[in-house]
Every structure is written in C-alpha cells, then in structure tokens.
Amino acid sequence: MKIINSLKSYILLMIGGLATIIVSLLCGINPKNELKYRKWLSKFLIKMIAKEIIIEGNIDKEANLFIGNHTHNLDIALMETVIPEKLIWIAKKELGETPIIKYMLTKTDMILVDRSNKRSVITMLKEVKKRINKGLKIIVFPEGTRNKENPKKMKEWKSGPKALAEKLNLKVQPFVIINLPFAFKQNPFRVDKQKIKVIFLDSFYPTDNNWYERTKEKMQEILNKEYNSINE
Question: Phospholipid/glycerol acyltransferase domain location, by residue (predicted)?
C-alpha cells in the first residue's frame, strides 16, 4: 500500500509541476489575465495536499505588508488561495534564474532581490513603493528561505522586511502557517493530506524599534502552542 501511495504521490507531483509550467507560460504570454491563472494554479496545488484550510483571525484589507513563517514552497500557493487580492512577492534573485519562472516573474510585478548586493535594499524599497502606489499588497517571508530543518521553529529573520515596513510606513499583518509541510512524508515519499491552518495576527504600523523582535516572538509562541496541541 505504501508503494502504491508513493507512486500516486509522484504522479501528483508531476501533474503539479506540469500545471506550474503551463501557468507560468500563460502568465508571461497573457499578463492581463495573470491573476486568474495564478489563483487557479494555487487552488489546484493546495487541493492536492489539504483536507481542509482553517483560517483564524481576520485579514485586514488595509494592510499592505504581510509577513509570515516559511515552511515549504507551497506556502506561496496557500497564501494566494487564502488572500483573494493580487499579491506581490519579494523573492531571492536566484528564483529568476530558472527560465520559465523568470518569464512569469518579470511579467507579473514580482520583486527579485540580490542578497549579495548591499544596494539591493534600496532597489527593493523603490520597487515596493511603486507597487504600493498601485494599491497592491506585498508579502514576504522574513526568514528569507524555507525552513527545511524544523518548520516548528522559525529561523533568524533578515533585516530587509523591517527596513521596508519602517521606511515606507507600511501597515503590517503577520500570519502563521501550521501543518503544511507535514503533508509530505518520507521513506517512502508520499502525500498525506493535512488540515492546514493560517492564523492572522492583528495588523499594526511599526512604532518602535522592538516591533520586529516582538512579532517574531508572538509568532513563535503561536507555533509552539499549535504544535503542542496537535501532539497532545
């Protein structure tokens, strides 16, 4: 049975990959409809791994910067599914080195950051300001990369999102993703659908130097509480 489930999971993975390639091409060819394509793909991918999506807290329609924990590549599809508006993702430059992905990113207002370049923060601020002036919402993972080792505990946060919120006086809404990476089992590899939860914290404007550290602490407390209750 495990072998059969593993084969089914690999087939699902290939279907998901093919769908991603097709949608990436469509976004590049017809950027006017890219939002429709992206939302469809996100829902399609999340249906493969989620028994149910539980949302706690309210999404602030006035928030223009969302920050959250990064547990898996499909975190992006999850948030695209949960938040109906167009989202602008800040991602590492390396993502744009994949030809098909680069084709999509450059046509859909996404922002790529070169972490090896100290001036990248200045460029990021300028690009984000342009998107905010268009009424778009920015979303970023302060950890900078997905946490492969232990998704229950956040890694150190990068300084970029803090500077972004403070320099542009953005309204910040944190979110916490629970259980998504555990849809993927190993030995053998297989997909085991999970109840996935997204918890939205209260939104705010950054008003003091400690807001960034306090936000991380609050989010880690939620992670601890949620995973402790699952294990009980």
Answer: 64-180
Domains annotated on the chain, with CATH: 2-231 (3.40.1130)
Evaluated on CA atoms 149, 21, 13, 192, the torsion sign reads positive
Beta pairing partners, 112: 91
Over residues 51-105, the pLDDT tens digits come to 999 999 999 999 999 999 999 989 999 999 999 999 998 877 666 566 666 666 6
On whether the CB atoms of residues 158 and 165 are closer than 8 A, the answer is no
Taking the C-alpha atoms of 124, 126, 127 and 132 in order, what is their torsion angle to the nearest 10 degrees?
120
Phi/psi at 153 (5° precision): -135, 120
- Give the C-alpha distances (Å, rounded to integers) separating 77 from 70, 165, 203: 12, 23, 22
Q: What pLDDT sits at residue 187? A: 84
Is a pLDDT exceeding 80 seen at residue 116? no
Q: Which residues, 6+ apart, have CB-to-CB distance to 168 below 8 Å? A: 125, 128, 129, 132
Q: What percent of the chain has pLDDT over 90?
A: 60
First-to-final CA distance of the chain: 28
Mean pLDDT for the chain overall: 89
83: Cβ–Cβ under 8 A, 6 or more apart, which residues? 59, 66, 137, 139
**Count, residues in the chain:** 232
| CB proximity list for 218: less than 8 A, separation 6 or greater | 174, 201
CA distance linking residue 15 with residue 223, whole number of Å: 31
